[in-house]
Automatic annotation (TrEMBL):
Keywords: Transferase. GO terms for molecular function: transferase activity. This is Glycosyl transferase. Pfam families: Glyco_trans_4_3, Glycos_transf_1. InterPro entries: Glyco_trans_1, Glyco_trans_4. Residues 26-190, 216-383 form the Glycosyl transferase family domain.
């Protein structure tokens, strides 16, 4: 089969799928992208130049949609060049978030299209208004509705969709859900696996050394920001570190903003929280390490005595799935979609996102009870094996592609 993948980043959500398909010589895999990730053998990458986001002309509520339309035109132009060179895909697969797929049905009419639908914005029951520390101004409600412009165009267009959690699927209107297939995203369970032996010797990460007798608390997010509970985590640390002088903390994440807004006073959320908590933290035991390479992140998770995952009711992070596969003893927010993956006292200690004291107390429980930590670690690894097995995910993905293209097997 001939596959056309489209995503501004490379390989993004499709890393395992495109590698799986490209490993078979009977498939031709082309990927249109603006990303510069490492090459994948057998995948032909075709670059496009993203248009500049224009700050004038359109109302600022619809600039995102205007930008998406320009992206759609840029992708369509590249796709026409591929078509003129003789490439005719059997299926098109990509992410709807940035408008890149919106014009491809005109370039390749009748070709099945499988789009990734990640989140449908709303004013209730989701991220907006969840955190009272950051109230939504009344005038922003129209902006939130405008953010669904690409979603709505994609839902009204041809093709089907995939989404990774029930919560994310159910953010979409009822009339749209029949178009969406739930596919739990898999994890490489061989790479992300427990390694109990790592605690038998000092752990080294750059110039950071964690002695074998010390406790390690970990946290990971693409960016250190409120959507992923960074502010709640930081406020939990003073009492936790006072109670456990043998505890060290490694925080993995960059310092931009992926979701929400930057601090009102400028700077980064790290700077903001360190200023708020000045004099209350032992900074010699708190390590901001940025975003790590995969192998390093796996080792940090394997060494973790308590891993904290917090999120608004929003898109679920890959880092939670990876921590589950490693068998981290988990403290996690009792927010959707986390509740789909974890059960309190069975696979994790679930805590209120907005209560730092509860977060700290749950971490202390794990640090002080090896039996509890080992039980949760064992159970969450089993849960990952049942729900997140990569082979199972790829098989389900192939079955969906076969259904859409009328093939019996790929």
């Amino acid at each position: 089969m001939r596959f056309l993948f489209v995503h501004q980043s490379f390989p993004a959500q499709y890393a395992h799928m495109v590698a799986h398909l490209a490993s078979r010589p009977e498939h031709d895999v082309v990927f249109i992208t603006a990303g510069k990730g490492e090459d994948i053998p057998g995948v032909r990458r075709v670059m496009y130049r993203p248009p500049e986001l224009k700050r004038d002309g359109a109302h600022h509520f619809v600039r995102e949609f205007d930008h998406a339309i320009h992206r759609a035109e840029a992708i369509a132009s590249v796709a026409r060049s591929l078509k003129n060179l003789g490439f005719q895909p059997d299926i098109i697969i990509g992410h709807h978030g940035w408008g890149e797929l919106l014009n491809l049905d005109s370039v390749f009419p009748g070709v099945p299209l499988l789009g990734y639908f990640e989140f449908y914005y709303g004013l209730e029951g989701r991220d907006i208004g969840f955190d009272p520390e950051f109230p939504m101004p009344e005038e922003v409600s129209l902006l939130i509705r405008c953010k669904n412009a690409v979603n709505l165009q994609a839902l009204e267009g041809p093709g089907l969709g995939q989404t990774p959690t029930r919560f994310q699927r159910d953010t979409y209107p009822r009339w749209a859900r029949e178009k969406l297939t739930l596919l739990d995203e898999g994890v490489d369970l061989e790479q992300y696996r427990p390694d109990p032996s790592i605690r038998q010797r000092p752990f080294q990460l750059g110039d950071i050394t964690i002695a074998s007798y010390e406790k390690l608390v970990t946290y990971a997010a693409r960016n250190l920001e409120p959507y992923r509970g960074f502010h709640s985590l930081m406020r939990a640390l003073p009492a936790l570190m006072k109670a456990r002088p043998d505890c060290q903390v490694i925080l993995m994440g960059q310092e931009d903003v992926s979701y929400g807004l930057p601090p009102a006073g400028g700077g980064t959320w790290r700077q903001t929280m360190l200023k708020e908590l000045k004099g209350k933290l032992d900074l010699s035991r708190i390590h901001f390490v940025g975003w790590l390479e995969r192998e390093q992140m796996v080792r940090v998770l394997q060494r973790s005595d308590a891993h904290i995952y917090l999120t608004y009711p929003f898109v679920l992070s890959w880092s939670l799935r990876e921590a589950m596969a490693v068998g981290c003893p988990l403290v996690a927010s009792d927010t959707a979609p986390v509740q789909e993956y974890l059960t309190h006292e069975e696979t994790a200690l679930m805590v209120p996102f907005l209560k730092p004291e509860a977060i700290g107390e749950a971490v202390l429980r794990l640090l002080e009870s090896r039996s509890l930590a080992e039980r949760l670690s064992h159970n969450v690894r089993q849960r990952a094996e049942k729900l997140l097995d990569m082979k199972q995910y790829l098989a389900q993905y192939e079955a969906l592609v076969c259904r859409m293209t009328g093939r019996e097997v790929l």
